[in-house]
Design goal:
Layout lengths: L2 H14 L10 H16 L6 E4 L6 H8 L3 E6 L2 H14 L4 E4 L5 H4 L4 E6 L10 H14 E12 L1 H7 L3 E9 L2 E12 L5 E11 L4 E11 L3 H10 L2 E6 L5 E8 L14
Parallel strand pairs: 1-2, 1-4, 2-3, 4-5
Antiparallel strand pairs: 5-11, 6-7, 7-8, 8-9, 10-11
The protein binds S-adenosylmethionine.
């Protein structure tokens, strides 16, 4: 990811932070659903400590903290971290929050963690091969031996097959106002192929309507590419465990390879 991409991605998330829950029909119901699914995936591995490397407003972090996991949650969007803090407080759970990106995680936190998760299509914000490799090396270095990595992104193989352009979102009633969300996706064949998600909200009360628009770019990372990056970074036993709209790959930290340092938890 080039510096300008990072700046644009952060600008996007800071701009939409106040409206983030409107992307969902019911954000708190999503947190409940994530809790059930993630716990089912992680508990058989004996996971106790989790680093959520792209927590946003806490969708998965709060879910896991509610299930009793010790959760550290990082995100580069300061506005989303503020929402995560407020949401955790509202849920009555403790989450340690960090202002960090995939690329500078080791400067902000020590491991080892039993599991590291990045879901909600966050990893597809890395556009560059070198930065994908760096992020995975960082994850590898922060995981305990045999630790579990979950990477959840959209199923870009299926998306590139049909190239949908118009994606309906949700309709919310807020006071007298109706808020209608939808996406327009623009394709760039690359290499690497990317998709600009243009997020629109139309708000009004029946008479007067206003439109807001914010674009953000994702790399259309195919499953085979992601698997190859994981293997090169030293991850093993990768399996697919799709959830909702997400292609979720579950891997284990292998013993030898991977560029990240193996670090101890601060006492
Ligand atoms: C669609 S949101 C998903 C957030 C949350 N996991 C969820 O499912 O609601 C994508 C998240 O990725 C984060 N993100 C973007 N670039 C990132 C990077 N380089 N490192 C870590 N997180 C990043 C954004 O700030 C945002 O919170």
């Amino acid at each position: 990811m080039r510096l300008m991409d990072t700046i644009h991605t952060n600008a996007f998330y800071n701009a939409v932070a106040a409206d983030y829950h409107l992307f969902f029909r019911d954000w708190w119901a999503t947190v409940e659903r994530e809790a059930v699914y993630l716990d089912k995936l992680l508990s058989p591995h004996g996971v106790r400590t989790v680093l959520d490397a792209s927590c946003g407003p806490g969708t998965q972090s709060i879910a896991l903290a509610g299930k009793g996991y010790a959760v550290t949650a990082a995100d580069p969007s300061a506005a989303l971290l503020d929402r995560a803090r407020a949401n955790a407080q509202q849920a009555g759970v403790e989450v340690t929050l960090l202002h960090a990106s995939f690329l500078d995680l080791p400067a902000h936190v020590d491991g080892p963690f039993d599991a590291l998760i990045t879901t909600g299509n966050s990893f597809a914000h890395l556009l560059d091969d070198a930065e994908i490799a760096q992020a995975l090396a960082n994850f590898h270095g922060l995981l305990a031996p045999d630790g579990v990595l979950l990477v959840g992104i959209r199923d870009f193989d299926a998306i590139l097959e049909t190239r949908p352009r118009f994606l309906p979102g949700q309709i919310h009633e807020q006071g007298d106002e109706r808020v209608i969300g939808f996406d327009i996706w623009d394709y760039n064949d690359g290499p690497p192929p990317t998709i600009t998600f243009n997020k629109f909200f139309v708000r009004g009360d029946g008479e007067a309507w206003a439109v807001t628009h914010a674009p953000v770019v994702y790399r259309a990372l195919r499953e085979a590419e992601l698997r190859a990056f994981l293997e090169r970074a030293g991850f093993v036993d990768t399996e697919r465990a799709d959830h909702w709209w997400e292609m979720l790959l579950v891997s284990r930290r292998g013993k030898a390879k991977g560029g990240g340092k193996n670090v101890r938890r601060r006492s």
